[in-house]
Design goal:
With about 120 residues, this protein is an all-beta fold. It contains no helices and 11 strands.
């Protein structure tokens, strides 16, 4: 089993940066990929970014390409989402999720609130 603990959300002005993190505990050797998703008020949860846990492959939703970067600190078993040039429409609860194989997320973090003021 894997536990995910997020931190690093907060309130930031538009065009500013923020870097939430997601620490993985437990059987991290079984992880296939890690992802960030977000859910804004009144909207469905949407995919933001993902990366292969033991590789370098990354993928982003079009709305964040060029602004967000997903990375991993191997020593800390932590995944980061560096968010630059933030926009008010990026306001949401951000969740990290882990998949043991392609096609489904097996474990979720508790979510961290990101609020971007205009």
């Amino acid at each position: 089993q894997v536990q995910l603990v997020e931190s690093g959300g907060g309130l930031v002005q538009a065009r500013g940066p923020l870097r939430p993190s997601c620490a993985a505990f437990g059987r991290t050797s079984s992880i296939y990929l890690m992802a960030w998703l977000r859910q804004a008020p009144g909207k469905e949860r949407e995919f933001v970014a993902r990366r292969i846990w033991s590789g370098t492959g990354t993928y982003y939703v079009d709305s964040v390409k060029g602004r967000f970067t997903i990375s991993r600190d191997n020593a800390k078993n932590t995944v980061y989402l560096q968010m630059n040039s933030l926009k008010p429409e990026d306001t949401a609860v951000y969740f990290c999720a882990e998949a043991l194989r392609a096609g489904a997320y097996d474990y979720w973090g508790q979510g961290t609130q990101v609020t971007v003021s205009s």
